[in-house]
Each structure stands twice: as C-alpha cells, then as structure tokens.
UniProtKB/TrEMBL annotation:
Residues 18-120 form the STAS domain. This is STAS domain-containing protein. Residues 1-20 are annotated as: Disordered. Residues 1-16 have a biased composition (Polar residues). Transmembrane segments: none annotated. It holds the Pfam family STAS.
Length: 120
C-alpha cells in the first residue's frame, strides 16, 4: 500500500461521447470531453467526473458537438457539489453559440477561455 488515494481511470467512453484527462497538475485536472453529452450518458459521465477529488476540475467542451440540457444540468449539479467542498469547476466553452446558451441558461459557470498551451 502506497498511501496514495486511488485515482479514477484517465478515460471514460460511451457510444456517443468520450472524456480523457489531458493535463494534471497538483490540485488541478483538465478533462477534455468530445462527442455528445445527452440523456444516455450524462449521469454516468457526471459520476466519473465527480470521482476527481482535486481543488480545481477544468472541463474542456471544445470538442463537444451536442450538449443536451440534461448534460449541462449534470455539470451544474457537479459544480454545486464541488462548491460545497470548497473546490472549483471551470469550463472551457466551445465556439458553438447554442452550447454557450445552454451553459448560460443553467449557469453560472466559471468560464475559462482557451489559453495558450491548452490542448484543443
């Protein structure tokens, strides 16, 4: 036994979507989501994301082509759970105006624009 906490798998996938850890620094994990986040996968994805016990969880949505309201709602629930534990959820939004509107409707989310060095 190493005394280190068990870490979740660095990838998650389903028929229509994937998630993978693209960077991990002390206290921060950035997860890139791709594909579709909808009724068929949002709860499972939310459970996987909730397993990351870090001070800041960054969710990169730039590769998401469809975000259903239930998917954004699951991210909002995750944000509330993290806030309750004095942790942060940051969202890197896509250029897609429809997805941004869904996020705005269910936010507020801490939006972090794409930065130099952020995988895209």
């Amino acid at each position: 036994m190493t005394g280190q906490p068990d870490l979740p798998s660095s990838t998650w996938s389903c028929t229509d979507g994937t998630a993978r850890v693209v960077s991990s620094e002390p206290g921060t994990v950035r997860v890139q989501l791709a594909g579709e986040i909808d009724l068929t996968n949002s709860d499972d994805l939310g459970r996987w994301l909730a397993e990351w016990h870090v001070a800041t969880l960054q969710i990169d949505l730039r590769q998401v082509r469809f975000l259903a309201v239930c998917g954004a709602r699951r991210l909002a629930v995750l944000r509330t759970e993290l806030d309750a534990g004095s942790r942060r959820l940051q969202v890197i939004p896509p250029d897609d105006v429809v997805i941004r509107r869904v996020l705005d409707a269910l936010g507020p989310f801490e939006l972090v624009e794409s930065e130099a060095g952020a995988p895209g």
